[in-house]
Fold:
Amino acid sequence: MTETRDFDLSILQRWRLRVRADTITLDSVPAMADAPIGQMGATQPGAAQMTASQLALSRSAAASPLSFMGVLNRGNRGNRGNRGNRGNRGNRGNRGNRGNRGNRGSSDSLDAAFYSMLAPWQEREKLHDLRPLWIDLPLAPPPSRAELRTEIPHMFKLQAALKTEAEAGRRDEILTERDLELSSYLAPLGINGDTGFHQTMRLFVLVAGLCEEIGLRYKDRWHAIRPNMLEPSLRPFIPNPAHPSYPSNHAFQSMAIAQIFARAVPEHPGNPELFRRAMRIAHNREWAGIHFPSDTRAGFDLARLFLPVLEQVVAEQMIRTSEEWRD
Structure:
């Protein structure tokens, strides 16, 4: 008899890793209107009553790691053979041959599944243990609408420039970076594809996921509008995300990744390029028309303010990353 054990990872809220003797599967758990948010002990209101940031925040713990690392790929099952046609006058057709069972997922995929599902809960628990240190960081409030209007001419210049042939590469970058695609941060370090730097990738996943939660909480504090909500004649290159504008989470996450890696592996020659890439990813959101420059600056400020806490939360993974580059 096959033994089944369930690991219900409450911190991930919406996923269950099911371990059997011969398989590992990832199942989604039906959402509940009043599920707890993270480790905060708060009750989540019904979706109809939630702000966009609250809804995104309630899903961020589960969604972020998966969007970066993927999950276990199971082998495909063979196709079941067709049933034979029933013969005339009672002669049954031959039953079709059963297809071969697909191959099991590779060990690399298994590692990815465990990175995605098991790793973040420890760091998130530590993050919430340190809640008093980050819940009220001295981030300046967003500019007034009158002040934001002074940024509109700059937004129009970027909108016009983005349409030119000279910025074709930037248009591709914006589309690639919509979901903070991991390769954008790995390329400056010389990592292309699966070249064995799993601890570095795991560090980046952790930082991005933790910062996503913090950023959404600060967005929900001010409910700042997007540029085309202030000036409707602006035409964003990509759709506005369904949460407030200030601060920019792309700026926050990108700069946090660069800062943490530079502290983990300060001697890496790719660090300057990683910082340049982080800044370009952040500014590309302005070019796309979905962030004011003040949103970007606030994201960089939040990365600086949150860094001491973030270093404590991911300290062990920083050590593993450092050792990976010295092996």
